[in-house]
Design goal:
- This protein is α/β, with parallel strands linked by helices.
- The chain folds into three domains: 84 residues, OB fold (Dihydrolipoamide Acetyltransferase, E2P); 157 residues, Rossmann fold (3-Layer(aba) Sandwich), CATH 3.40.50; 35 residues, no CATH class.
- The protein contains nine helices and 13 strands.
- A hairpin with a 2-residue loop joins strand 1 and strand 2.
- Helix 2 packs across helix 6.
- Bound molecules: guanosine-5'-diphosphate (GDP), magnesium ion and zinc ion.
- Magnesium ion binds next to helix 5.
Amino acid sequence: MNHAFPQALVPYGWDAALQQSFLPFTEDGLVPVRVAAVDRGRCDVITPGGPQRAALDPALPTGDPAAAPCTGDWGALRAGDPPVLAALLPRRTAIVRSAASGASRGQVLAANVDTVAIAVSLETRLALGRVERLLALAWESGARPVVVLTKADRSPDPDAAAAQVAEAAPGADVVTVSAATGQGVDVAAAVLTGTVVLLGPSGAGKSTLGNALLGADLLATGAVRDADGKGRHTTVRRELLPLPGGGVLIDTPGLRGVGLFDAAEGVQRAFAEIEELAEGCRFGDCGHDTEPGCAVQAAIAAGALPPRRLDSYRKLVRENERIAARSDARLAAERANRWKTISKAQRQGYRMRGGKDKGR
Ligand SMILES: Nc1nc2c(ncn2[C@@H]2O[C@H](COP(=O)(O)OP(=O)(O)O)[C@@H](O)[C@H]2O)c(=O)[nH]1
Ligand SMILES: [Mg+2]
Ligand SMILES: [Zn+2]
């Protein structure tokens, strides 16, 4: 039996803990792999012997977008023609957004991510609400968020922009880069560690930054089409690329609208200063509105908290509650359906026992 440590997977993040959790699969003769991309019922995996295209074992939960294999997953590959991805290892972190359809399910964008780089272009007006939403998503995932302000060469005052973003990103590093001049790329490389995923709208400069970090033009980039800053969707799929200083990069296609999914804790962390202020409110269930003794309103009155932050916080809390209610409704419906199926089977059993069976 081969219990060798797959050195070739170390640049992709393989470590002793993964080796440990893989032991049962080693005994079955399976090989450790990292999933680079999943499409059309197949996947690209990195094996100790290089990349391979594999089929998905029908036993994998492919129907559930929250549990289906995705970029960044570690798994076990069964040799064959084609090789088959037979199982997934438990995820350390998962970036989950609400799936497009009905938003009652979560969809995993990437698994086992250590650092979420939120790309924000300084070329266009700062969309702080979007940054806050992505920060909540990132905190919820268990990964560490970093805001990367891109295209510094296109901004009249990058420092002022960085200060504004920092106010909307408590607890997160904010770095400023320009791929055009090379400014800040070394700082970004130093803070973006482990498995790094680039998130942000199309045209934000994710792939360009990715290439600067990779030290090679491996990712396709696209010119911004027009003045509204909407880019073309140049990045069509997620990929897994080892970084020269260690770590792995996952580029993503631009995310236009990202819905939160079950992200209450992520929202709390993204608005940590409001949560902290709320500790000082007179009422434990203060709505931070017109209640007497509200420490949050007092901070706003004193100019210590931008009112925009409270609005944004409220919006994301409400959105998250709405989606939680919908997914609760879906679970209840699934339970009811299961019950219907069970009682139907029982009725059929009763009919059989009742002698209506014609003896076939
Ligand atoms: N001036 C300038 N342009 C940039 C910079 N980074 C990216 N761009 C341009 O912005 C456009 C979109 O970049 P891209 O990396 O494809 O964005 P993505 O959609 O987020 O991957 C491309 O035309 C890039 O050349 C930068 O630092 N400075
Ligand atoms: Mg791109
Ligand atoms: Zn209050």
